[in-house]
Amino acid sequence: MSAVTAAFSSIKERVAGKRDHIKSKSGSGLNGLAERFFNDEGEPMSKNQRRKQDKEDTKREKTRAREDDEEELERRREEEDERAAQNETPEQRARYGMLSPNYSLNGERANFTQHSNWKPGDNLSFRARIHTTRAKSSRLLFCVLRQRSETLQGIVEAEDGGFTEHMLRWIGRITPESIALVTGELQEPLHEITGTSIQHLELKITSFHVISRASGHVPFTVYSAQKLHAIADDESDDDAEALLALVSDRVRLSHRIMDLRCPTSQAIFRINSGICNIFRSHLDALRFVEIHTPKLQGGATESGSSVFSVQYFGRPAFLAQSPQLAKQMCIAADFERVYEIGPVFRAENSNTHRHLTEYTGLDIEMTFEKDYHEVMNVVSSFHTLRTAVV
After folding, report:
1. 327 vs 10, 69, 246, 317, 361, CA distance in Å?
2. Beta strands 96-98 and 315-319: pairing type?
């Protein structure tokens, strides 16, 4: 066995020596050739390994070239900023820029949810995200601003004594989803606005300061996701799937915070909140008591075949399949009427997308004094709730 090991080591040393000989024999050409056919340990690489190595080298070259381009672009922008600092007046420089972390804003900040009370001529100051920007010309820039799911169109115009063309370029370069402090005057739009939720007014921006700049390039923007959904709704099924694939579910879930900023994603949680609020208010009016039952339990409350088992400090425990047992205990304890809004866990191993292993349950339990029609009346009262929600 030792002879085989010694022979293998001798072959390995000869291969490594050959590689070193090729690398030292001539210049970078053969050096690169040796690196292409031998790994760092002196062993020959297979075709798949060489193909993988080529891909990694190409990727590194592209990354290096992109970084060089970005550095060159940043250098040019810094030079442009320096020239603008010499040409612009202090009043103009105060209209835009980065804010310090300890900035303060005098007066009340406007909220987009109160736009029904706005009128032309009102001066507003508010904090919002940059939804998207679009330069119409070197002297006119449109900037859509967003608070939650409400959007407002802003206009930045280059004019004497006000914004300069450099200011417009500076605002247009800000990464979407950055947070800005904006001040301006409301006015009636000259043309119909269709790309924002607030369509009867627009903002003529008089100052624009960035509070927090989005770092790097975002994988997708809320604006692009909204636009793809809007286009997909007007296209055929095949075209719609192709468009939505540009911002696929995998991309959305990999960047969940960005996805949750989209109005369609927020709508799921807002509808959920509205339903729970109506359910809770209705049962409170009927003298029900809201309870919160434990979700980590020492035993399965229902069938043990569809229960998740977990370890609880070295002891077996189970995720609650239902609050049924706890509700019945409350009824026996003279609560008379109880309900719960909480998570339910069921270990239903299925390949269909319609089986839920976790969901939010709306559960009620009540006693009746005369007959079961009392329970039926409470259940029937939920029909009016369904009408109200719809």
Report:
1. 77, 65, 47, 20, 13
2. unpaired
Instruction: Compute the distance between CA of residue 20 and CA of residue 154 in angstroms, rounded to an integer.
Output: 65
Q: Rounded CA gap, 375 and 362, in Å?
A: 16
Locate all alpha helices (DSSP H) within the chain, ordered by sequence: 2-25, 28-37, 47-87, 90-93, 165-172, 222-234, 237-244, 249-254, 256-260, 263-285, 324-332, 373-389
Sign of CA dihedral 185, 187, 193, 199: positive
DSSP 176-226: TT-EEEEEEEEE--SS---SSS--S-EEEEEEEEEEEPPPS--SS-HHHHH
Helix (H) or strand (E) holding 344: strand 337-345
Instruction: Evaluate whether 133 touches 174 at the Cβ level (below 8 Å).
Output: yes
Q: Is the pLDDT of residue 61 over 70?
A: yes
Q: Which residue has the tokens 């080298």?
A: 57
pLDDT band at 150 (very low <50, low <70, confident <90, very high): very high
Task: Tell me the C-alpha distance between 229 and 313, whole Å.
Answer: 47
Alpha carbon dihedral 115, 119, 123, 125, in 10-degree steps, equals 0
Residues forming a β-bridge with 129: 146, 179
H helix or E strand, kind and range, residue 296: strand 296-297
Give which of 182, 168, 97 is closest to 137, Cα–Cα: 168
Q: Provide the pLDDT confidence category of residue 289 given band limits of 50, 70 and 90.
A: very high
Rg, the chain, Cα only: 32
> Is it the case that residue 315 has pLDDT exceeding 80?
yes
**Coil, strand, or helix at residue 140?**
strand
Q: For the chain, which domains are there?
A: 2-66 (no CATH), 96-100+117-212 (2.40.50.140), 222-261 (no CATH), 264-389 (3.30.930.10)
